Amino acid sequence: MTETVHNDYEVSSEGAVRHWEIPYARLCDVTPTPTNAAQVTGLLVGHELTGTILTVDAVTSVAVIDFTAGMVYRHDVRNVLTYNPGVAELTWGLINIGDPVYYDDTPALNALGVYLSTSPNNGANPGIANPLFGFVVASDEVDMAAFLPAGKGIAVAPGSTIRCAVMQCGAGAA
After folding, report:
1. Going residue by residue through the chain (174 aa), what tens digit of pLDDT does each one get?
2. What is the DSSP letter of 128?
3. Domain ends where: 50, 66, 82?
4. Domains of the chain: total
5. Do residue 124 and residue 161 come from a single domain?
């Protein structure tokens, strides 16, 4: 039997790059902005597909999103850990290398232009899990030094929004 490589198959030495067009209507934030984090709405709450918006086309209402697992982008991350039942932030913590980062569609965060937090639970919907977006990494040696010895951010009210390099889980991640 002859082996055939189909013309719609690509291989990259960097691994599979996953850029995909998604209609705005399927996104959690229906007014997407390039460089922001994105969440595709799905059936299983807390397990939705997430990635980084690369481009938007307002004419066709489609965003191109990078769903590549392991891709690193700099994102604003809110250091909130828990919420009051009234959607207010309750506790905060330092952000450290290796910390999980979640896509958080709590309206109070989104009003700040922030879509990622360190809270595993949603502030607008108590008991609902936020989907895992990725993990904090250092972008370079200067950034790594900013994490030492304890981490970035402050652990007191009203919390902080910290720009961090985040290695996204993307498509294909468990």
Report:
1. 445 444 444 444 456 778 999 999 999 999 999 999 999 998 888 889 999 999 999 999 999 999 999 999 999 999 999 998 766 888 888 899 999 999 999 988 888 899 999 999 998 887 889 999 999 999 888 888 888 777 776 555 568 898 999 999 988 655
2. P
3. 66
4. 2
5. yes
The pTM for the full model equals 0.86
Q: Are residues 94 and 51 in the same domain?
A: no
* Two tokens, residue 153: 């951010």
DSSP label at 140? S
Q: Which domain holds residue 104?
A: 72-168
Nearest alpha-carbon partner for 75 in 156, 168, 152, 169: 168
Is residue 152 domain-resident?
yes
